[in-house]
Each structure stands twice: as C-alpha cells, then as structure tokens.
Amino acid sequence: DDKWLFDKVAQLMESCYNPEILAYLINSIISDKVDNRIKKKYVNKYGATEHPDIFVFVMKLKIHLGCHTIKDLDTFVNKQRSASYTLDDEIERILIDGWSKSKELYIHLIDSLNLRISDAKIRKETAWRILFEHYNDLDEVVDRITEEFENKEYPFSFIHSAILWKLLAENFSNNPKVISVVNKKIKSAKGIHPQMEKSYAGLMGRTDENKREFLDTLESSSSAYWSITALLAGWSCDKEVQKSLENYFKSTNAYASIS
Fold first, then answer.
1. Full-prediction pTM beyond 0.90?
2. How far apart are CA 204 and CA 247, in angstroms?
C-alpha cells in the first residue's frame, strides 16, 4: 500500500546487480497486492537465471502466479541444491506448495534418500519431512520408515532430529506398523536423545502403558521435561494426569529439574 516503497523496490529491481539483494527483491513482490502483469514481467526477465538464490524466488513467484509446471520441478531440484543454506525452509515450502502429492516429487524425494548426503539433490531431512507430511498414506513410505528403524542404530540421525520425531508422532499416530517398530526401537534405549524419542513414540500409540511410563518418570527423574511435554500433548484432559502434574509441580522434583 506504500507507493513510495513499491516504487523504490521497482527501481532497485531494474538497477540492482547484486544477486543476493535481487533474490529478496523478487520475494518482496510476491503479494496479491502487486499487479500480476508486474510479477509476470520479472518471471520472464529472470526465469532463465543461473543464480540459484534468484531462481528459488523466481520459482516461488511462478507458483504464486500458478504458472509452474512439472518440468519446472526438475529444473528447480537441480538448481536449488546450490542455493544458500539459509533458504532451506523456503525450498521445502516451494516443493510442497508447487508439487506436493505428485508422483514426480515423490520420485525425487526417494532418489535423494537413496544417495549419499553429498550426492543427494534434496536434503535428506527435507525429503523425510515432506514424505512424513504429504506421502504418509503410501505403503512404500511406511515400509521405508520401518526399514529405517529396523536396520539403523540411529534412524533419522540429523541435527534437528526432534522435528522429525514430532512429525512422526503427528502423521503416523494411527499406523500400527509404524507404532510397533518405533516402540520396539525405543525399548532398546538407543538413540541420540532417548527421553525425547520416548516421548514422541508414546504420543504415537497413546496407550495406557505409555501414559503410565510418563507418570512414573515424573516421580523418578530429576529432569522430566519430555515426560511433561508428552503428558500435556497426549493426555491433557485425563484427570489422573492433571492430578499427577499438579502434585509434581508442588514437589521438590519440579524445583530440582529447573535448578
């Protein structure tokens, strides 16, 4: 709505040669308030760019305009791998907004999981996240998750593994095959963050046994953060849980866990 600011952006887009600045200038016009003719002008002007950061936002703009194609997916996958790591979230969102549920994106995701980290075109963590959220109804994805737990000591061993465990709990809570293999793995007590993993595994099944284990942890552990998190997420309306948490926060255990 600020004409002066928009005119300044338009001026910079015609005169700027710094690719990092230009990329974000393109991002700034991705709005329903900007005339589609102006947006299409810059799609045409920068659509063939070889700079990966600029191309990321050109593709985001094309998806916003609804003029992207399946062929664009192949080009995007090839170019985005060289983009700045600061655009990882943007890239994941673009893949989802542009081609989620498509067979072509699924093939790219699986191909990346089958390759070494250095050879994968799509980051493995990004691939898993999209599979968990948008392809969780496929038997092939369930089988792949099962294999990950059965054959690897540390499944989904990424820096931000908490995110993947959270997505597992959110998207496979009613899948008995995944719940079974996860619970079997958790009982081995091996993992990067066993308490975190146990809390999300318990949220997948949400059985009385899971609840009882979390309640017992409140009484025996000096650091019950993950048990409290799981109880609040899975049994917040349970009277026994409410009473146990009330007693916990009145106890010395609660003070010990934050001291």
1. no
2. 26
